[in-house]
Write a structure and sequence with these properties.
heterodimer, A: 243 residues, Rossmann fold, 4-stranded antiparallel β-sheet, globular, B: 386 residues, alpha+beta, binds adenosine-5'-triphosphate, binds magnesium ion
Amino acid sequence: MSSVALEVRDLVKSFSLDGTTINAVDGVSFQVRSGEFVALVGPSGSGKTTMLSILAALLTPTDGQVLIDGQDLAQMNEKKRVKLRREKIGFTFQSNNLIPYLTARENVEFMLRLNNKLNRAGRVRSDELLARLGLADRLHNLPAQMSGGQQQRVAIARALIHNPAVVLADEPTASLDTARAFQVVETFAHLIHENGRAGIMVTHDLRMCQFVDRVLQMQDGKLVRVYESKQEIRELAQGVLKH
Amino acid sequence: MKNIFLAAYLAVKEVIRNRGRFLLVALVIALITLLVLFIAALGEGLANGNRQYVANLDAQLIVFLEKSDYSISASRLETNIIKAVRRVDGVADAGPIYTSNTEIVSLPEPLKISMLGAEAGRPGMPVIVEGRDFRGGEAREAVMDRNVALRSDIKIGDTIEIRSTQGTNDKFFELVIVGMVEGQSYFFQPTIFVPPATWEKIRPQSEAELNSDTPFPNIIAVKLTDPTQADSMSTRLVDEVANIESANLETTINNIPGYSAQQGTVQTQGVFTLLIGILVIGGFFQIQILQKVPQIGVLKAIGSSNGVVGLSAVIQIIVVTALGVGIGGGMTYLFSLGFPPTIPLVFNGTRSLIAVALLLLIGPLGGMVSIIYAVRIEPLKALRLG
Ligand SMILES: Nc1ncnc2c1ncn2[C@@H]1O[C@H](COP(=O)(O)OP(=O)(O)OP(=O)(O)O)[C@@H](O)[C@H]1O
Ligand SMILES: [Mg+2]
């Protein structure tokens, strides 16, 4: 049995705007194990991005706990949180993922550079990872010289290269066509399973759920349903189940 | 240390991958540098032209006629005051200085000059670098500043002719150039030196002045036994010698007609050019930072510290500014080679150094806002804007 990489307990995040308070995340609890790939779905405004921001230690929750690799985010100062993001977390963003003036290889290696771990073995690993993602001949391309899907794959390599405990992906397929999207998420799922990371992917596209182990469905900040069986997930992905 | 490497890595990569854009800014800085260095050189040149002779005097104090407000041209002293000054305890030597303007006409183009009277071997007469001092009395001999030689082809041993208006007539006088001195411009003009008695004979003068043969010095240059006692000696001179006032060289220079006003103008131009530079650089880096908000958000979200992001912005600004100032300095040097000696440009002055130091500061100053802005960008921007 693999260990719990990420744990969320009674998480609440409220925003006060003009006197009214919105609970963007409202009492959510769940766990993600190493080697497990989880999708976070839900209608617009249901709190997915807010949730991901809190998991990434980019936003402080109003209440509740987040534990990453056993460490409580609330107990950390900003310096520790920066360190945690750099060491324990891998990110892909919806777009503008990559540093525009670094090549594909440099973008991936930058994550190792940040962690002071860029050595010969690291360079080899990063080239191998990019090759795995079908980018062997794009190592020296700048982001502007790559397609959206290629950029997204570089971002995935960057999110995995430093062996983080948790990998967070915000809408990784939003800028891709369907065929590309399937390909990218499938490879992503493989790598997460293979390397024993805890992966969380926010997505609007329910068809992408076919590659995940569990689906967390949010609505109005609450976790309203969890799809766990292969059967349920397949039906959700194929649009048989109404969510 | 690790932060500096990371920051330098990011800064340099960005500059290299956006060479065109950064080179353009560097060129703008280079042009500003060119302008500022020329203004500085002009300021130095003009200042030299005006004050060189006084600044290089082998003296610490200047004696003026009482109530002349330290104005050399307004001051006219009695001859016996020289002796009185020399007798004051603590005065090593004192020499009279007689000033006038005239022109050398024995040239294809007449050359306006300052004709100064001074006593050979006394304060007021500069050190001869070539040839010899003029003889005393009414010898028709002169010593020229190298500046005269540079602007004409007059050599030692040549006879020159000067024209002076005396009363209502133009009179012409011949002088043999017997020696050369250096760095003695006065009142924006190259200088020749003549003995006092000669000066009195050949200087431009009014009908009334023609009746007297006694030369009245404008000022007296006073060399002290102890140069550090200038202030107390100044008081002592005024106490012991009647009808005089006394000032140090700096005060004297600042009271040369037009000197302060002119230097003020030149400095104001320089300062405004630097301010424009700061605004231009500031504007560029600010616009650039605004465009970079998402990528800076990403950098921070994946674990770069504020220190790295801020430092990277600083390094980049320094690199670009230094490049610009370097190119500008080179351009200035090349341009300066092509300028004739008649244009008063002096590039080796401390002013040029100060200008370079200030120029190197305009980048960081202009970019300050953008650096603070960069440090303040929230990593959350990566997700929200992403
Ligand atoms: N900084 C904020 N200030 C005030 N309200 C906010 C803030 N951020 C989010 N909210 C509110 O919190 C709720 C959840 O927002 P969130 O962006 O997490 O939703 P989402 O599930 O990501 O939606 P989408 O699918 O459209 O991206 C929304 O009602 C939103 O308006
Ligand atoms: Mg969202």
